[in-house]
Each structure stands twice: as structure tokens, then as C-alpha cells.
Amino acid sequence: MNAHQNDTPILRAEHFSKTLGGRKILDDCSIRMRPGDVKVLIGPSGAGKSTFLQCINCLIEPDEGEIWLGDRKIDFRNTRELCGLRERVGMIFQDFNLFDHLCAEDNVALALRKVRGMSKAEALERARMELARVGLAERAKLYPAQLSGGQKQRVAIARALAMDPTVLLLDEPTSALDPELVGEVLTVIRDLAARGMPMIMVTHQMEFARAVATEILFMEHGRVIEQGSPAELLAEGAQTRTQDFCIRLCDLCGGDASTLDGEGGTASLTPNAECPEA
Amino acid sequence: MLDFLDLNFITSRVMPYLDRGLLMSLQLIIPASLIGGFIGVVMGVLRVFGSAPVRHATDAFVAVVRGIPLTVQLMILYFGLPNLPFLKIYLSPYAAALIGFIICTSAYQSEYVRGALLSIQQGQIKAAQALGMTRWQTIISVIVPQAVRRALPGCGNEIIYLVKYSSLAYLVTCIELTGEAKVLVSRTFRPTEVYLVAACYYLAMVTAATWLLTKLEQKLAIPGFGPQK
């Protein structure tokens, strides 16, 4: 992570606030991304994590707040600048959101053609390359309905990476997956982290977060209430809200091993076991 | 009763006569279904994704078209428009019938398309936007191709209706299949054979349309949409 000495943030989301139906969902949240940063948003459900993430590329327009891409402030009410921002900020969704009528390679190629203006041949070549990188070279011609959840999510990752994003946003990328498919997606994400792709990720995979995150942001009631490296926040006896939350999450997993959480826990243990060496 | 269903009469007299009508019917049905289908898709999109004034205008158009019997619409187009005080619009019988059918079928098609558009999950729209695609790029390359596949069975139904309500064209003196049949009956006084042949012609057209639509559905079928192999 120290390979990048450049200290200017590549993306800044400053002082985001959002009120929906009279309830304050986001209250003055900020995040700064430097090259190689992997920041993980955690917190109880309803804390505003997903809203915060979707405000960063304006899928949800914040009521207040500024977005800076490098040293340029984005006017997200200007459609052109907004599309430009989204082109640079990739997003992975919980439920994949692949285009159902297009096969895997066309899913990846579509935005290359429409947004980047590539020719069909160029776009497909790039698409196949990206699919090969997530281990799906052989599935390029299959449609979303023919892919497993983990494969769909990997296509979605290839689709986002094809746009050469500056930052990747991941909104609970493994939450909709069967437990035995979680590992394959986490492996891809860990590879990205190792290659220095800046990422902001909402996840409940605590062991994974601990392993890849450079910083953890703990959110509650629309505010970032704790922020720090995993080592600081999750150290033995750190007495932080983050640690408290993690312990409760782990208790849930351990207490009822037959639930999805329990199985998710075992799936996430395997990647974690490899991580200290990585 | 001996010459009831006289085959010779049918082949030498009725069929050549009705073939002309069939041709006119096809000249009405084919353009009306193609142009009407296209306008229907465009209007369906505008009714879902247009700005508020556009939505209201297209909704109102559909409400009016669906609320007035096609017969009355055709009468207005052919007999009514020439009497407009300032712009006296004279339409040929063929033009009046074709325009009437296009208006009618596009309004109904837009309803099928609208339903299909609403069924596309919001997530895909978000995904397209997150990739930097504009609203209209998203609509045209993500939403419409899926919606059209979902709307196809309903749209096909409307085309089959169109085949049959094309028989109203004779009311504005556009003599198509039904019109020719009526004329022939008044000359020969043999309604049974004449109308039977006309009925067979309609049945043949509907069968052909159904077959074409099934082929189209199969051609457009992809895993997750349309008939499964």
C-alpha cells in the first residue's frame, strides 16, 4: 500500500447530508480516498452505509455535500459532469444488476461502446480481457440467467473494471450470494486490493474487512462515529464501538451456526486464513 | 340446394374477386402493424420516461383513442375532417383507413409496452447510470430491448386484432376483403360461399401472423426471456 507516495486524494466526498421522508439518513459524512486506499464501511442496518456509498456517485443525490475528483469539484447537477464522475467511479451492487438481455461479454462491452465510444470489436476485445481477469473467459457468451450468483457478481466486477475506474464502490458485494459462492468473489476483490485498486466497500464480512481494509469507518444513525485502521479499532481490548459491533456480529454467527450468517462466517474464514501471508 | 358450396363457383368467381380485397387488406394491415408498432413503442417509452407534460399529453391521447369506437374514429377521419372550418382535410379512403388503424393500434401497443417497461427492475437502470450512461442511452440500450421482449405476446395479440378490425375499412369506402365480399354478395346473392371464403382468408391471415409472431419470439428469445428451449 505504500507504493504510492502521492498524498493528494484521488476522490473526496465532503460533508454529505441527506434527508429522506423527514428522517436524516446521512449527517455530515466525509471520506477521502488516496491511491491504494481500501476503506470499509460497517455498522448496523439502517446506519446509512449504502446511502453514503450511492451518494458518492450520485445514484442518490445528496442534499448537501461536495464531490472532488482529484482537484476538480464535480457539479453533480450538470448531467455531463455527473456522467463523467460515474464513468470514473465504478460500482458493484449487492444484487449484481447485470443487463439481463445481454451475454456476459456484451454486459461488459455496452458501456465501453456507449460511454467510451469504442467500436464493437474493440469493446468486445476489452470485455473478454476483463472477463478473463475474473476467471470467466469461458463464460463470455452466457447470459445472466445461465450464470451462478458468484459468476454474475464477477461479471459485474469485470464490467466496472473495464471502464478503468479511479475508485471502485462495492455495496455488500457478497450479501446476496450463497455461502459457498462468497469465496470466489472475495478472492477477486482481494486481488484488486493487492493490485492497489482504491475501493470503498460496505460489507458484513468482518474477517475480510480486517484483512484488506486500510481504514474502517463505523457508521451509526447516519454519522461516521469511528474511523481508523483495523489494527486500531479491532485491537484486543480496544473498547471501540466497532469492536463491540464485531463481537456482537460474531456472537450471532457462532450462536446459530445453521443460519446464513453462520455459513457466511465459515466461507469468510478461509480467505482470512490465507491473508497474513498475502 | 344442389349448388350450395359450388366449388366451381368458389374458385372461378369468389376467389379471384376476394383476392383483390385480400391484397387491399394486406396493404392496410402490414403498414399499420409496423408503423403502429413502432409508434406504440415510442409512445410507451414517453408515457413512462417522458417529462411530465409529455407524459400527460401521451396519456391523454391514449385515453381519447381508447375511449372512442374505431368506427366513429374512421368516420371522423374520412367524413369529418373535410368539414373542418379552416383546414379542410380530404383523405383518400385508403389514407383515412390506414391513419385510423395506425392511431388505434399504436395506442393499444403503447399500453402493452408501458406495462413491460414498468416490469424492468430498477437495479439495471442504476447499474447503467453507475457506468456513466445517460438516461436515454439507458432507456434505449438497456430497458427497451428487454421491455419489447416482454411486451411481444401482448403486441402480437393486438396485431391479430388489427387483422380483424381492418374489416372496418369498407365503412369509409376503402374496399378491402370484407368490402369486396359485400359487393360480391350484392351481385350474386350467394352470401354463404362468399362470406365463408372471406372467413377462410381472415383465418389464413391470422394463422400466418401467429406463425410469424412465434418465429419472432423464438428469434428474440434469450435465456431469461421468451420461450425456453
What topology emerges from the helices and strands here?
The complex is a heterodimer of chains A (278) and B (229).
Chain A: E1 11-20, E2 23-33, E3 38-42, H1 49-56, E4 64-69, E5 72-74, H2 79-88, E6 89-92, H3 104-114, H4 120-133, H5 149-161, E7 167-171, H6 179-194, E8 199-202, H7 206-212, E9 215-220, E10 223-228, H8 230-233, H9 241-255, H10 260-274
Parallel strand pairs in A: 3-8, 3-9, 6-7, 7-8
Antiparallel strand pairs in A: 1-2, 1-4, 4-5, 9-10
Helix pairs in contact in A: 3-4, 3-5, 4-5, 5-6, 6-10, 7-10, 9-10
Chain B: H1 7-49, H2 52-67, H3 70-80, H4 93-118, H5 122-130, H6 135-165, H7 177-188, H8 191-220
How would you describe this protein?
The complex is a heterodimer of chains A (278) and B (229). Chain A is α/β, with parallel strands linked by helices. In chain A, α5 runs parallel beside α6 and α9 packs across α10. Helices cover 41% and strands 22% of the residues of chain A. By secondary structure, chain B is an all-alpha fold. In chain B, α1 packs antiparallel against α6 and α2 crosses α4. The longest helix of chain B has 43 residues. The radius of gyration of chain B is 21 Å and the shape is flat. The mean pLDDT of chain B is 91. Chains A and B meet through α2, β6, α3 and α5 of A and α5 and α6 of B.
